[in-house]
Design brief:
Oligomer: homotetramer
Order of helices and strands of chain A: EHEHEHEHEHEHEHHEEEEEEEHHE
Largest sheet of chain A: 9 strands, mixed
Distance between the termini of chain A: 40 Å
Radius of gyration of chain A: 20 Å
Helix content of chain A: 25-40%
Strand order of the largest sheet of chain A: 14-13-12-11-7-10-9-8-15
Strand content of chain A: 25-35%
Shape of chain A: globular
Chain lengths: 363, 363, 363, 363
């Protein structure tokens, strides 16, 4: 690591995403990247839990106001893993202060909020990334590479669904609060598959959707279904739900083209099902040395885990910061976060109006 | 079989469905049912192929005009397995002549044609059945029984898709002719999953759909996608395509309820995936002695085939004719065929108008 | 069927195999074969059940002594589906009377008994077949064809197991009686996989085995395990058990060669898993028109059932009787039944002696 | 981490195991354990690769002679991940020097060598562990807990196989050198499943095996098969091969008992298939908060990877060093390493002698 530059990191949030990001920062030193993170400070409101997280994950300091991080000259990268309502303001402030910004998904709670975040980050000239970590699953990257290389021919169909089951019996959480979360299954799960649709297939151009809250007294949506027309003629379905018993974390998609098909499920994230014109699906274990990211890991058949997607994501971000690559197209920028939000907003409009809605993006 | 009554059967059609139905009629004698079919005549236009089918499947006579069958007093059951354009006229004529009628799906090419068929059959007072054979898969019947018994609690989601891949390279066929077929993937594959949706979950009340023809010079649709709202609040997606490489005959559905989920695929038609509140899916091999239809067959784990669904279907129809049961609810009547057609028509209207369409049924 | 010859059939047994064989005989008329069976008589000891079976499956007569069948000039084919203890004497008598003979597996209860059956059938000059129906699964035939064509290169490993679970709670049955059954899991399940090993890979030359009865007061074995060296250098494992909870009818094998591998399971009998040098397994749905036996059936993806294997088997036997083909190599002759018995006997010897046993075959 | 003790670590080896162990040591700081590792030095013969590994994984020093580590007072834990021929001497020297020792599997190249290692470690009174990391897969630990709790009733069968395919085309390696490796597939893959057999089911008491080298000019075995009788009456099969095309890293086992069965495969290491008396297999995704090790990780359905098993293993070892737990029974001690070696030696003896061999263990 001699000669590797370092960058100070300030992170907002200490819960699920705080844990995942912290571990991914720590793992960087085993990857031999050109830029190494220094864990300057972690911020959050609950001092006790914050201190616990600081100690466990090796952050030097803990601060209860993210504004201290924005003003901290040691910090070059601001990582926002807080609740959705805390995405916009701190991220914008950090960008204005010249810090590179990684913000968890969904970027903002609405397209408007997301657009502002993107514009501010662009104006500030910082590197910005939205935390769509599933782009960094080896099998998903392989899917993208195969599609880019034309291996599937002309794509005609895309279908994705993200199903979980915990919504039936869940305890209270900010995730059910409309002010804090913005939306429910749509922003939490749907945003992921909208991003994957855009990453793999193209821009949604029009859609019709139904959004539903089934559980009484719940403020946010439990589920949605949508049919989508993409700008390149592909047709598809999107669906997310927190009420699908038996589905623990089924984030699955399938692409059909004139020359082949591919299929994926996060619960078996090391596998990609591939079919060609000949016809049947082959289960490809995406652990060969020449598969994406696998040079970092183990011999064939020794699988990676969900947490490792963050390791890949942050590795990519750090490489973008030193200029070895750019965030796009394999990472999601704030523009991607914004475009995803336009699709989510169109889903809500369609559901509310009972109409087919076009999706329009602002440059 | 001593004492079993018999009924004369006239069948229109000698191709795919002719083969499947003939074998199912022949298999009845091994099931010990109270009514045994006598294979009086088979009709079709191509005399050579007709005679070949007659000889192979044991029909006594072959006639090139179905009107001869309608006038044949030896025939008590008219089985219509001809092309879609030949469903209405012969079936109506047979009913008017007092014959019980089994007609392949889709019932008519439109809701209007289907409605007329239903009304005529009702007026004639004959037993009528529409050939939705997937209701007679043991695992599908088990799914229905579990749903009826409330084992899944309140149902919230339904999703079904019927994907095949032969559409890319298919030779010319009446199936691509809009006059003969009425529609493409919609009537051929979509009708099956619309019927299963109705059989398992409830009546579609409103939907938004996209219907597409991707292959040049093809008259009928290659695929459709739809989001559906059912009258009981369930939301769902429906999809069919003949352009899904790698999917040979994937007719799959999933139901999610407050207390459990179930999932099925025709390619593994002896299996039903079941989850309860506890959480994970169990692969149930639907071959136990107490599973639907399995008392007719083999010891556990010795699977049945796709052709056997017709054996069950015709066994059920014959029992209905002698009054041991009624066609509904486990078999599809012409009313079911008509209601399915209303949903298919709404799918076409929605696709044409770019609008959410309500489905209305006439009594 | 005009011009098709016919052959009178006499069948011994009316239980599980009686049902399967009867249906397979009836199904012949839909296959257009050159020789059509006439169901002359069925024999068995329990007159009531016998008459029930006769009526249900359409046998003309029922007789309580198989000797009447042996003496019946109308009968050209004797089908022995009785208990194992009744395999040798009636089959030999039928062969001596000049009747072709189909006998269920295991051929005899011992190698000695089986050898006598083979010799007598050969001496009589009749067509003889042992009912190893799994050779007639389309995927198994395909496996054999791929192996014969050298698609897997030099074969190194074979492993097969046949696991069921009903042995824990089973009611009394002749299957647990050592005199009637000869052996337990070994003859019932093990014989099938020994035959498949021979059909696919080669002759077992030496083996070491453990045979066990776990359930108290049971006379026959519940399970066995064996390591096998084949005459061509292949090494393998064989295992059968009636005590494997969760395994309903898992008859599974895998072959590994220098250029590829294949894997199969009867519970999904329409599927063959295939891997080549490139590396991963493709799930081949063995329902394409050019797959073995599938020209008799449905379009791709419409699966066949377990019962259909008997239809193929008897179709093959009838073709052999008219001289269109020979029973071997795709059907099992009495020689195959005998050779299988030598392997089973060696398994018992090895278990008894705690030694590695060579398998020797007599010409 | 305030108040956490620390322990200096010296590691021998920088290849595959060096990478896996280094990452696992680094990951400890995110687990909040009571003892934190300090990475004092890494040793190996190739100075260039050694220095590269030192820098990448954050070891303070690199030394080319492991004896320096044995003499280094800063080191309290010696981690031996070198080639098999370098397991005994350095591990014994470290133990004699009072250091706790973690040694990769197989412990020694023979039972005799392994026994000496165990005795020396015991005499020295240090904590000793053999690196059977599959014991630390959450699903494997869950399997053990279910077996201990009697959930499967009386166990009757065990079958395990560890199949890879790289042996056909592999470049030269110490793994094919009989002096350096001791054995081939047996020690590399077979040792893992022998250990799992012992961890889950009991002590092998007698066995019959065939060991084969198929690839020309190869010194060590490519594969073996064995039937095993356990001291508690369980019967089983064991198999390992590097020549199974299509099997990338299939380490799979199944246990059948009077009340249920369980089945596992490392390629899907987050899943455990479970069946009870009722009958069918449920796919349990072992990612629930109350599943073994999962309190350290993510929400349900977010899977862990193969590398994380080392994180669990070293976490367990560190807890044993501070006395919070003992290495046994969930970790493998040097005694376990020795007992595994006795089974492997018996496999070789049986293959050589063509005999059933009893396995005897020295206290």
């Amino acid at each position: 690591m001699a000669g590797a530059q370092s960058i100070g990191v300030g992170m907002l949030g200490y819960a699920f995403m705080g844990k995942a990001h912290s571990r991914a920062f720590l793992a960087q030193r085993t990857l031999g990247g050109p830029l190494q993170p220094e864990l300057v400070s972690i911020s959050g409101r609950n001092r006790e839990k914050l201190e616990e997280a600081r100690a466990q994950y090796g952050w030097t300091e803990a601060v209860t106001d993210w504004r201290e991080q924005v003003e901290d000259d040691r910090i070059g990268l601001f990582d926002n893993g807080g609740p959705n309502a805390l995405h916009a303001e701190p991220s914008i402030a950090a960008a204005r202060a010249g810090k590179h910004v990684l913000c968890e998904k969904p970027l903002g709670r609405t397209a408007a909020e997301s657009l502002e975040m993107w514009r501010e980050a662009e104006t500030a000239g910082v590197v910005h990334m939205c935390g769509f970590n599933y782009r960094f699953v080896p099998a998903v990257r392989l899917a993208r590479e195969l599609l880019e290389a034309g291996e599937l021919g002309d794509v005609v169909h895309f279908r994705a669904r993200y199903l979980q089951s915990w919504g039936w019996d869940a305890p209270p959480s900010w995730r059910f609060d409309s002010e804090a979360a913005g939306s429910g299954a749509l922003g939490d799960l749907g945003a992921h598959i909208v991003d994957l649709a855009r990453y793999l297939v193209g821009e949604p151009a029009a859609l019709s959707a139904v959004v539903r809250t089934f559980v009484e007294e719940r403020e946010v949506d439990d589920s949605f279904v949508a049919v989508v027309e993409f700008d390149n003629g592909v047709t598809g379905t999107l669906e997310a739900s927190r009420l699908a018993r038996g589905r623990i974390n089924q984030n699955t998609f399938e692409v059909n083209g004139s020359k082949g098909s591919l299929s994926f499920d996060v619960e078996r994230l090391n596998e990609l099902q591939l079919a060609d014109e000949g016809g049947m699906f082959t289960r490809v274990l995406v652990t060969e040395p020449d598969h994406p990211f696998m040079s970092l890991w183990w011999p064939p058949g020794h699988i990676v885990g969900w947490g490792d997607t963050f390791t890949h994501e942050i590795h990519h971000l750090l490489a973008a910061i030193v200029g070895d690559t750019s965030v796009a197209p394999h990472g999601a920028t704030f523009e991607d976060g914004y475009r995803c939000a336009e699709v989510c907003d169109a889903i809500l409009r369609s559901a509310e109006n009972g109409s087919r809605e076009e999706v329009s993006y602002r440059g």
